[in-house]
Structures are given as C-alpha cells and as structure tokens.
Design a protein that fits this description.
The structure is a homotetramer. Chain A is an alpha/beta fold. Chain A is built from 13 helices and 14 strands.
Chain lengths: ~400, ~400, ~400, ~400
Amino acid sequence: MTESAAFKSGRHFLQIPGPSNIPDRVLRAMSKPTADHRGPEFAALTLSILDRIKMVFQTSSPVLMFPSSGTGAWEAALVNTLSPGDRVLAFETGNFATLWCNVAKRLGIDVDWVEGDWRHGVDPAVVETKLAEDPNGEIKAVLVVHNETSTGITNGIAAIRQAIDNAKHPALLMVDGISSVGSIDLRHDEWGVDVTICCSQKGLMLPPGIGINVVSDKALANSQSAGFAKSYWDWAPVIKMNEKGFYPYTPPTNLLYGMDAALDMLLEEGIANVFARHHRLAEATRTAVFAWGLEFCPLNPSEYSDSLTAVWMPDGHDADELRKLILDRFDMSLGTGLGKVKGRVFRIGHLGDLNDLTLAGTLCGVEMGLGLAGVPHKKGGVDVALQYLASTSAE
Amino acid sequence: MTESAAFKSGRHFLQIPGPSNIPDRVLRAMSKPTADHRGPEFAALTLSILDRIKMVFQTSSPVLMFPSSGTGAWEAALVNTLSPGDRVLAFETGNFATLWCNVAKRLGIDVDWVEGDWRHGVDPAVVETKLAEDPNGEIKAVLVVHNETSTGITNGIAAIRQAIDNAKHPALLMVDGISSVGSIDLRHDEWGVDVTICCSQKGLMLPPGIGINVVSDKALANSQSAGFAKSYWDWAPVIKMNEKGFYPYTPPTNLLYGMDAALDMLLEEGIANVFARHHRLAEATRTAVFAWGLEFCPLNPSEYSDSLTAVWMPDGHDADELRKLILDRFDMSLGTGLGKVKGRVFRIGHLGDLNDLTLAGTLCGVEMGLGLAGVPHKKGGVDVALQYLASTSAE
Amino acid sequence: MTESAAFKSGRHFLQIPGPSNIPDRVLRAMSKPTADHRGPEFAALTLSILDRIKMVFQTSSPVLMFPSSGTGAWEAALVNTLSPGDRVLAFETGNFATLWCNVAKRLGIDVDWVEGDWRHGVDPAVVETKLAEDPNGEIKAVLVVHNETSTGITNGIAAIRQAIDNAKHPALLMVDGISSVGSIDLRHDEWGVDVTICCSQKGLMLPPGIGINVVSDKALANSQSAGFAKSYWDWAPVIKMNEKGFYPYTPPTNLLYGMDAALDMLLEEGIANVFARHHRLAEATRTAVFAWGLEFCPLNPSEYSDSLTAVWMPDGHDADELRKLILDRFDMSLGTGLGKVKGRVFRIGHLGDLNDLTLAGTLCGVEMGLGLAGVPHKKGGVDVALQYLASTSAE
Amino acid sequence: MTESAAFKSGRHFLQIPGPSNIPDRVLRAMSKPTADHRGPEFAALTLSILDRIKMVFQTSSPVLMFPSSGTGAWEAALVNTLSPGDRVLAFETGNFATLWCNVAKRLGIDVDWVEGDWRHGVDPAVVETKLAEDPNGEIKAVLVVHNETSTGITNGIAAIRQAIDNAKHPALLMVDGISSVGSIDLRHDEWGVDVTICCSQKGLMLPPGIGINVVSDKALANSQSAGFAKSYWDWAPVIKMNEKGFYPYTPPTNLLYGMDAALDMLLEEGIANVFARHHRLAEATRTAVFAWGLEFCPLNPSEYSDSLTAVWMPDGHDADELRKLILDRFDMSLGTGLGKVKGRVFRIGHLGDLNDLTLAGTLCGVEMGLGLAGVPHKKGGVDVALQYLASTSAE
C-alpha cells in the first residue's frame, strides 16, 4: 500500500466512537523497541500498570488484561463465572448489548432477554421485578452495558445495583464499561460491580488490542465452580502470573508501552477532571444537536451519554449518505448506525483525547454536512455550542 | 514509569526467540494515527494484507487474524474443527507442544500424547503407526509444532504428511508455525496442512497481538460440524466479514499498519531469500556453538532449527545465571529455558529482522558471557562463525 | 523536562504562521535512523529532493539548501551577490522586511529604505520611479518580501518585475518567499526572480532547520564578482557538491527525510491544488474576520495574504492578552504581533498542512476568545466561514 | 523515494564518526509536534536545555546554539572575536583543521599555519615557541581541533593552555570539540578555553543541524571590538534573547526536543561515566587493530582518540574498496579517508550511543571485510577485543 492513497492535506478528524484519537504522546511511547516480556524491566512496567490502572476503574480488585478485542473481554467474563445452560438477565439497549447477548447464546447460556427499542436504557424497576420473580436464584448474572456505543445511552449502574440489592438477589452484576471507562464515571467497587468489561481503544486512548476484566471477590469465588471449559480466557493463570509482573501468554508489549503513557496522562489530569471534561464537551455537543432541531437517539435526556452523541435522522434521510458526504468533503469519520438503527443514526464520538477546538471543528463539519446533504435542520448549532464552551471554559 | 530506568547507552540486543527485533520501518508504520476500521481506506488495507500474506504461508487458502496471542490461535484451531471429547494425536517435543496439549485438555479434548525427551522431534514412523492403529478414524487431528521455540527443534512436516497419507487416515493436520513462518520454509498448500497456526511477533517482525489461522478446505468443511460452543474464535464470521475488508471485532489497527510494512519488507526481499538468510545465520550460530564444544538441545542435527538455537548447558551450570550475567554486563536478552529444560538450556534467537553483524555481536556476547560465568567451553566460536559468514557472504 | 508539563488533553492547535503544523507522515519520515551522508543511498535521496523541489519553486534553476534558519538564507542571498557598500532598494512592508534590511545594514550594505506603514505592500510605481532615478545602476538589487508574515500582506512580484523592466534597470530581484512558497503561487522563472529565499518550516511543512536560495543565471553570474568575504554561505561549493548528491557541510539528514515525504505530499496533491486550497481557506478566514467587524492589518484587499491573516485589534484592546487567553482556555497558539504592531495585531496562520475542519476549529477558538476577552465584535464569523466552506467544498 | 530502496533486513551499522547512531529515545522525542517557539512552554524547555548542557561542556559560561552545521560554528567563533586581517595560529593536524583554516582564510584572516603530516597532534612546545616569537601579540587566537575526526588524533588541550600561559601571550584559545564533546573529557572552564566549537551530531547523539559556541568572558570581551561585519553569527542577540528562553531566529524546534532527551541520557549516565565508557570501547577497538597487525593513522599512542580509530591501510590497498565491500556485504558504513589520507585510511566510529555488543559486531564486520578484501592482516583482532571487553566489563 502506498501512503499516498490515504493522504489528504490536514488532520483527519476521527470522531467515530470506535477507537478514539490516540494522543501523539501515546503513539510515540508505542514506537519503543519491543522488550523481553520475561525480563525484569518489563515485569516492573507490568506491575506499575496493573497498580495504576486500578485508579481508572476506582477499584482495589485485580484488573486482568487479555490480548483481545472488547468482544473477547465479554466472553472472558461469561466463561469464568458461569456454566453452560446458566441463566442470565440482559437488556436490549442497543447493538452492543445484542452482540453480547449473542456471544452468551452461542456459548450455550440461557439469556432472559428484555426487549427494548434502542432508545431507552435499562429500567431498574424491571431489574428488581425480574429478580424478585426468581426466588431460587436461577438467574446467575445481570448483564448491563454501561454506555451503549451504538445509541449514546448511559445506564444507571448505581440504580441497577440498588435494584438487585432490593430484590436481595445473589446474581452477579456484569457491566460492559467499554465506552465509559476513562470518559464517564464508573465506580467498580462502590457500585458493587462484579465484573467490569473494558478494552484499550476508547477512554484509555490506545489502539485496539487489549480486552480487560475487573474482577470482584464474589466473581472470583464464582469462578471456582464455573463449568465452562476454558483456556485462553481463564482468569486463574492470569492472576497468578500477574503477581510477579508476568502473563500466561505473550503480552502485547508495545500496546503496554502505550498504556503506560496513557495512564500517566489520565492520572496527571486527574480522573475526576477527565470525567468533567467529557461531560462538558458532551453538553456542548448536545446543545448543538438541540439547536439544529434534530432528535437524539435516546429519548430520555437523563440517559444521554457523555462519550458519544447518537443523532436520529429525520425521516427520509439516510445517515450513511450524510457520513459519506462528510468524509469525502471534510475528511471526518463519524460513527455509522449499527444494527437496527443502521441508516437512522449517526454518532459523534467525543470520548478519549479531546479538547474544545477539536470538538468545535467536529461540530462545524456536522453542520456543514447537514446543509450540503439537504437534511432539514436549523442553523446555529455551532453557535450555541461555542457559547456554551466559552461560558464554561476554565479560567 | 520514567524512561530513565530502562536506559543503557547503546542498542539493546533482543535475541530471545520471543518477540523478534522489530524493524524501525515497521515501528514507524505502527505510529500512524488510528483510522476508522469501518471506513473504505482501512478496508482496502485489509484486503491488500489478506492477499499478500498468503505468499508468506505459500497458500491460496484464507488467512484469518484474531486480536490475540499465539495461544489464542491454538485454541481457535481446536474449537473450530473439533468437538468436546474428540481424540487428537500430539507429541511432546517441548514446552509449546505441551502447552498446546494443555489447552486441548482444558477444552475437554482427549489427547493421545506421545511422550518425548524434548531433544528429538516427531518421528513420522510413529505417526504412521499410531494412525494405522486407528482404523475407525477416532483420531480427528494430528497436532505438530513445526518449530519448537523452547528446544530449537524443527519437525519435518512434509514427512509427517506422508505418514498420514501412508496410513490413509482422514485426520486433520494442524501445524503450529509460530516460530517458523517467515523464517523457515512452511508450505501450507503443498504439504497439505489443514490449519497453520501463527502469530505476529516472530518471523512477521511485529509486536505481539495478532493470532493467525490458515484454513484448508477440509478444515473449513470440518468446521461445519464441529461441536464446540464458540463465539470469539469462530472462523465463519471472520471469513464472511473479511470478504469486504472488515472484521467481526475491532481489529488491532496499528498492528495492521505494521503488518502492511512487514509484508512489504518480506516480499521485497523475496520469501525464498528470507528463508536462505535465516538458514545461513543459523548455520553460523551452530558453527560457533560447536566450536565452543557445547551441546545442542536437539540431539539430531537434521532437526536443528533455523530460527533459534537452544544450547544445552554443561552439568552443574545454570543457564539463567549465564543469561542474567549477559543481560547485566552486555545488555543482551537471551531466551530462558522453559518447562522441563529450565536452567538447562538457553536460547539464541536468530529469527525475524536480522543480519550478519547483529548476529556477530550476539555471538560475541555469548562467548564473553560463557567466559565470565565460568562455563567450561573452548574459545573460538566467534572466529569460526565469522569465517563461515565471510565465506558465504553474497558478493 | 517531563512530558507532563506540556500535556493538555486533546490536540494543540498551532496556528502561528511560524512553523506550520507538521503532517504526521513527515514526522514519521524524520524518525528514520540517520544515514551516512557520504554514502550512495543518501546521495540518491539528495538528487531526488533537489530535482523535485524545483517544481515547488516553479523553476529550472538550482535550489540550494543551507543548515540554517530563514534569516541565514537572507544573509546567503546578500553575501553571494553583493559587495560591501553596495546599494539596494528595500521596502518597509513589515517586521521581516525590516529584519532583512537590518541584516543588510549590519553587513555594510547601503539600504535605500522606502518607509511604509506596515499596512500596505510595495507600490510597483515607486519601484519604477526609484530605479528610473538611478541611471547609473548604483542600485544592485531590489529586495522584496513576497508575503509579509508579520502583517499578512502579499506583494505583487510580477508587477514589481514589470516595474524593474519598465525602468530598464539591471538590479537583481531578490524575493523572500519564506511564508509564500508551497502556499501561495510564486513563479521563480516566469517572474524573473533572481534569488528566491525560503526555509523549511512553513509551506514545506517541516520543522525549522533548512534555509533555501533559488538562484537565477544572472544571480550566479553576479556571484562571480561579489565582494563579500564568505565561507559558510558561499553558493559555489554547494552547487558543485550537489551535482553528485553531496554537500560541503554535514547536511541535516533527518530533516531531509522529512523533506522527501513533504515533497511527495505536495506533488501528489499537485502544486496548483495546494495553492487553491490555501486560497479557499484564506477566503473563509477573511469572511469570518469581516463578519466579526474587525479590521485587517492590510488596508488593501488585493494584498490580503493566503497564508495568514493579521487582524487589527480595536483601540484599547491588547492582542497579546487575547492570545494568552486563547492559549490558556483553548490550547491554541496564534501568532503574536511583531515589531511596530506588537499588541495591535494577532495573526491566524493558515499555511502548510491544513484542511477545512482544522481551520473551522481555529476560527471557533478565535470567536470564543474575542467574546471572553471582551473585544468588541459582532457574532457570526464562524457562521459565514462555514457557509463559505460548505458552498465551495469540492464534490 | 520508496523506502524499499534502502531496505536491508536487520540493523544497519552506522560507524562513520560523522553523525553517530541516534538513540531511539532521542528519535522518539524528535517526533513530537512542533510547538510555538515564542510560547511559554518552549521558553521553559530552552532555559532548561541551556542550563543542563553546561554540564556537558564543564562550564559556567554561556552555550550558544545556531541553526547550522559544525562548519557554521567555526565561522561564528572567528567572526565574533576577530577582525579582517587578524593573525591566528593554527596547526595542520588533519582534514578538519585544514577546513577550518580555509574558512578563516576565506574570511580574510591571516593564518599562521604550522604544517603537519596528519599523523601527529599539536606539539605544545611549538605553540609556546610561536607565541614567544610574537611579543607584540599580533597573534589574536590559537586554533586547535581537540579531536581530529579525520585522523583519530586527540590533542592535549591542557598542555596547549599551559604553553600559552608559559608564553604569557594574550591570544584566545579556540578549540574545536566537535568530535570530542560528550565522548572525551573537555573542560572548557578548567582548561581556559575561550571558545569551544561543537555541533549536535556526534557525542550529543542528535542528527546534524545545531552548531554550538561556548564563550568565555574574555572571548565575550573581545567580541565587543571584533571588526567583522556579521549578522547571523552575531553572539550578542543570541545571548540577549536566550536570557528569557528565546532566540533571534526560528530555532530548530524538533532537534531541541531531541537535545532535551539526549541531555537527560548523558546526565543520567553521568558525564564521567560517558567518558569512561568511550575510553573502554576505544581501547577494545585499538586492541583489535593492533592484533590485526595494522597501523594506526596517529603515530603517537598518547594521541589515540577515544571517539574514533583511524586505521592506516597497508601499501597497495585502498581503504574505500574495503569500505565498499563491507557496506555491500555487511551493511555497515565506516568512515572514509578524507583529504590527504583519502584511500589510505578508514575510520571506525565509536562515539555517541554505543555499547559493547554493537562495537563487537562492528569489529567482526571489519575483520571479515579485511579477509574478503585481501588486506594483509593477522586474525584474532576480534578475539583480543572480546577478551579486553570481558575482563573490563562492570560487575
């Protein structure tokens, strides 16, 4: 492949909420020569990473990393805690919840699937009811996607935890934090999450390649009796080897160099500040969408996501045609509609390494694209976003 | 982590046959900004990679890539072609054969395990006998590690194929080519391999993070009826999505940038030239070891590996003490003895991106280390290696 | 220095028209290991660069590169063509014209200095008059800054050439193209420029470190009799050594790797397309400034620069306070007012590697900054710029 | 240019004592996005660099940096301290002393040139005699190349200082430390050097692009009355602007990022340890050359250089043919013979970022090359070098 094929002058705006923009500091860290992953220096790096990453998850539990995508981390969570035929409660909040459900089904897990319209989050009352109807504890786990990357809906994990407690039900709480961790507050310990699932390429500001499980004591206890045959995803050897800074597989060395730099960046900024920054940038985005007179995919404002905004297209207008136009004219990649909302939704990613002017440029691209594509909308979205950003900018 | 901790002036010699040295051209390619893996340019890159990589495996079959380590690629090969309780034939040729056997066992596969002494390769006659004793075809697959990274033994895949054919047995032939592909001749099609297993970090000159399966028509046919529950490792969605240049998971984008550059390098040099280069460098290494009067881990010279040389320590001398001394004094990482040969063996990696003078520097480090560690040996290993390299250098 | 000191999350906007933004492709090219600058591969690279760079200057004359800043290239132009005490004609169009004049004076050149108000370009009629008043040809050279980086004024080189011709005067025409070359049309040959002065860090999209002289036959002829003692800046040995791909000094190897990549980028896009892109982005910027109701530093619209826009602050408002606020709040560096217009002017760079959305983000930052700083202005600058960009975007 | 042209598998050995090998840490630092060189962060970086670099020169005097090659730094030293027609005393110790002399002559300086055979250093007794014969102090400066990169001869600066003092002569002592600084002990203050000349690409482990002058109080005082017209090289504005962290020209930003990292590396190792490392590696090299039975370019062992070794070829054998063979066969660049010793000498660089095994690989390449080129020599050079390195390696 020649490089020229990809060249357009100026910086590409990557605002898919898939992999986020990688800070140049992380890219440079990843270009270090690969080291011996069985040597003493790499072990020290591993121990430091495994220690510092706990602050991002707000946990004192072990954080386990697999060379995998986020889908692998879903599978790892299931096969370590459950047995074939086990029943789990899950909610159709969007494409990724559906894909996770499919993973579970393919593995032979019995999914109690609460259908949804992809425009609402999980109702804690339903959780409580469902669990109350299961006095024998046949439901082994509740599966929730914290932030649905396909719909821009953030679920209330604390309220769901409360619902489980209200029902006095022993089910594990498994939370997919793939597009929330590092961007939106997720408190593994305080909220009583049993397994938090994550991966490298969103709030952690890395390229894809690392899947993550954060594992509570209860989950760990459950894993002793879990009935799935497993090897690659088995937590036990990872935990054991990690103690001395090693892994039961060849780790993705250069990604870990990047992780080291990314953790430095997150902790230098302060994790609460990181969350506040994303909330503010998300608010600016929503202000613009509202001013354009466009609808949000989520119908409930309290469920708007701080890491991406999914915009609902007016009837008769195709989101992917808009996205293609914006890519061709303005060299910006926006997120496509996935699954049921294909063509109905486009997504503006504002997670990871982002600041005011990059977001402003992003919104400018959307506003110009809407006009050129003939999508009915009101002008002024950028204007109000700028007013919001200006009035809330830190002195 | 500060960078200073790792600083030693001058270039670190990474001669573990784990991850190989990464060419700076590949490192630079990997530092490109991450792209939209659902966009048209990335799809074009994927199609180009999937096309060119076939030349490295000498195959016209599909090459499937997973975000995983090599151990994941082992698991993928098993769960796509077999069913729980299936019987496979495998050989104890070293640590990685043993680990692969353990993966199979953990997954509930019945491994017919032919024990070995870690100093001999697979005897094709035993393969033939074993299969001849299985007239009902209960053995579903023969598992062979082409090049044992722990012992420096290369097995004769063509002869093993012949043995299977002689026995007229329908078992699949699965070959772990992790430390041979891109360094040692492996002919997936011509040798009738059904699944070749590989990963990114050795002959492909990348960091770890990609597991590979190359899949014959027969293996693909078998996968239709394979009984393992599976999701992440399922070949079917990968093959389907790859057709248009996409993946059923978020691919490791920046590693794929590196893969693009690494394939350019291998194909520019010519794959036959790459194999010849490694054979010559391996011969030089062996000449030195022989001159030192040290023993090889493999007892059969016809099984010496061209991608690494495992040296057997004289009784009473610990390989890891030698390795530690060489690391401390000369900033060179050599491969440790693994499993049963822990302490008995050290390994000199000469795979991946390597040339004469880097190998020469490596052998100098070993020769000095042997002396300083008080390991009984004769001088002159470097001398004869240099004579060999000089006399065989291309005009 | 720790990296953390410089960290702000998200991408810094560097819109000073000093060094321009460096494309990541160029940054990666520059990180190649340094080669032997006396070896055959580096010579081939040099010959290729010296050949291709002529297309950027639209010349068939030799392009000479010095390891220096642009100020060095000024000095080189003077000492190769003139003698101490020689008279030159120069124009006070802004800070860089003044600095160049000072260089000439320090070297003992007699500068016939046409004063100016920093808000108008060179009047070709004045050139003609001045030269007509010099029948004995005592004026040896006319010095013009093509694009004044301090004021955003572009001078009409073709008209100045015509004025010289009208006066039938033998003076050399020396043009500082530092902030025009690679962004604004400059035709060395067609316009009869004798020495074009340039450097690496603006339209050529490199870091600073290379000064450039493009030398006409007439200038070369003059250099035979030029009376300055010189060594470093002497054209003769550069021209001689360049013939075979070498230099009379150790060349800035890694910058030349970057130059190779930058030339690929410029020539892939097409130099006419590069100019058109900058004109369009400049128009968008001007549309915004006009809508804000702010004044331009240049008073003559026909002299507006396509590589930067210098904005004149309303009385009582300090440009540097605005710049500081924008840097602090929005992590964007704008150009400071230099020399006589210190505090009166801020400059928006839109040269080098730039596209629509980066410019849009830039204008958003300015509009927010104006508001927060209490600078009297009308809203809507961003709006009209977006309208312009959208309506002119290429299908 | 395609990258493929330059590809050879494995790492190129760059052992020219021109630009030295650049540590990957420095290369990564240089790939940071360019910053505003008039902004506060860059000023802080500059102040930090200018402070720390003094430790490398062992001085409390100002260290001035020019965007230039080392030849520019020669010129800067002369034009700031002298007047046209001034007389200086200089010594033909090799090619670079001769080039510096030529720079001085071209500038109109009257060089009192003590001829030499390129195989001996400066005799302090001659310095004393020459100065004693100049009671009126017509000699304004003594020019000495500390380490002759063309011949591998290191001159005794302390003894030369003593000779000047013995003669009670007021001449300035100007020392070219280009290939000694950062590799060989040079004490600017203690040895009473008035101007130390240096550049970026040798012991400072950077690419070329920065020329350096370190300036004593006496030199600074002289510069007040120096009669050369000058602009670019003028010390005064550099010193003035540096006070606040700025420069009177656009500084080579990305090289300064590299300088920041290189200084970190040198100071972490400790400057005395850096000198000791180079001495030891030089000794190993000399041991090999001696064992090969080859002659050194320097005839006086006390003048052997610790940053490079120049080897004198046996009669009838061409050094450049040997160099070409080694480059073609083993991908190693050695230094060519320059000027009078063209073809008679090849040079092994062992300055900058170097460790034991890289040097060992280098010597292996030379030994193989000598054999293949049919250069008469004894075997065993590598052997004795390894014995030396092993016996002196730090526990």
